[in-house]
Amino acid sequence: MVSIAMEITSLSQAMQLHAQIIKSPDPKNRTRNLTRVFTFAALSTAGDLTYAHLILNSLSTQNSYFHNTMIRAYSQRSDPTHAMYLFLSMLQQPTSTRPNRFTYPSILKSCAQLKQIRVGKQIHGLLYKSGLESDQYVMNGLIHMYSGCGESGLAYKMFGKMRERDVVSWTSMIDGFVDDDRTVDAIRLFEEMMEEGVEPNEATVVSVLRACADAGAIGVGRRVHGVVEERKIGSEANVRTALIDMYAKCGSISSAREVFDGITNKDVFAWTALISGLASHGLCKEAVTLFDQMEFYGLRPDERTMTAILSACRNAGWVSEGFAYFESMQAKYGVKPTIQHYGCIVDLLARAGHLDEAEEFIRKMLIEPDVVLWRTLIWACKVHGDIDRIDRLMKDLELLKMDSYDCGSYVLLGNVYASARKWHDKAKMRKLMNQKGLLKPPGCSRIEVDGIVHEFMAGDSGHIEAEKIYAKLDEVEERLKAEGYDPKLSEVLLEIDEQEKASQLRHHSEKLAVAFGLIKTSPGTDIRIVKNLRSCEDCHSVMKLISNIYQRDIIVRDRIRFHHFINGDCSCKDYW
Description:
Blueprint (H helix, E strand, L loop, with lengths): L10 H13 L3 H17 L5 H10 L5 H12 L5 H11 L12 H11 L2 H13 L6 H13 L3 H10 L5 H13 L3 H13 L6 H14 L2 H14 L4 H14 L3 H9 L6 H13 L3 H13 L6 H14 L2 H15 L5 H13 L3 H9 L7 H14 L2 H11 L1 H4 L4 H13 L3 H13 L8 E6 L2 E6 L8 H17 L15 H9 L2 H12 L6 E5 L5 H13 L4 E4 L4 E5 L2 E2 L6
Parallel strand pairs: 3-4
Antiparallel strand pairs: 1-2, 1-3, 4-5, 5-6
Helix pairs in contact: 1-2, 2-3, 2-4, 3-4, 4-5, 4-6, 5-6, 6-7, 6-8, 7-8, 8-9, 8-10, 9-10, 10-11, 10-12, 11-12, 12-13, 12-14, 13-14, 14-15, 14-16, 15-16, 16-17, 16-18, 17-18, 18-19, 18-20, 19-20, 20-21, 20-22, 21-22, 22-23, 22-25, 25-26, 27-29
């Protein structure tokens, strides 16, 4: 028999106690102990939400605590739809069970998870009418909801209205900016937070390190690392893994390795972060060695680890090794292949020129291939000059019908038509994009100088030092020509004359960024650039020449991988 005073540790104990409560003659004790049983069933990892909901339904007198706890429990599920239904039922209840300041944060969290911005705005209206918009706890929930729904501008508006902000407010807003690809704003906000004397917590540090990783802001990342060490913030595993990821993505794989080596108890996430970093830097043998070491220490790879090791094989062009890892995933490691794993193999085969095998692999997949896989194959056909296969795939697959609002498909097909000088067909793609309101993402490059991230778009003239940058570009171009540089005009897929094509190439975003880096950094220092698109052949050739002419190590992270340009050579060995 379970004692009413004892702590509940299992569902069977909770059910025994529930039985005793039902028999109890004392209504006051009955209510108090039923609350204990209900809370355990709803919120404990050993509980049972269905059982908790049965208790809620059995109550003769409803109260807000039980409803709020159930909504909170449902909001922590991968699908919090039941939280929404329960919230709606609360609105129909008597005053004693109407939503209050403890209801709204959980239901707003559910809206964020379900991306229900319309419902979230309606709930915002309800809490405004309830006079709760000034409540810090509720406002934090609003920031999280708007951020989670991709509306960082509205989230920041809520943030600006707050009279008092705690670490949760700041962290939610920083996280929202990062998720909305506003990493420069996230870093700026973190610096404001530190200036105001708000103590960061583990979640803050992980969010701002993610911002540094995305922006390539290694200087800010090192400062955050210093804060972590000085104030002993967060669990070793979580923060250290974020540091490994930050250093790897900012181009300093040696610093990432140093952090990794300093971890006492390495979990699979730390191993995966470094394996992925090594793979992206083209250190593929080292990535495989580390994967083997992880196995030796008895850790089982997860989905992300397998993606990392397959990426290493892809970047190195190791077809047979990649297939061996892929085929052993489920049998050896118990990891069921996902679309990302299939994508790595398609990319591996396609880049290596095995176009027949890549197409056959896609057609025989056990899961439905997505539009990205077919795009990967068509892009490879373009690179390897297999125009007949492109025509057949485009006719057979009706690629655009697979995802009619996927901008990448239109851009790829437009580029294929342009390469074949089918300007009329390219114009049709552009017209379709305009009709659907789709915009091709512009080329964008970031470079950090003295702790400040500078962002350049292709053809950008809005930077405060634009005049100096373009003057530097003129100087660079003269020195390139002296070395025999000839612009790769075929990279410009527009129906314009050759002089205009050369001008287009000259103003690519990474060239503006490297010119700025040459101006603002000391001779002999590394220049680090992060860009959002795959490097074109012309920019790749230019970076190799600049690294030799100016004796600068240039580290560029494009959408695919890292390129380390040293003395006229690239670490990718022109395979990317």
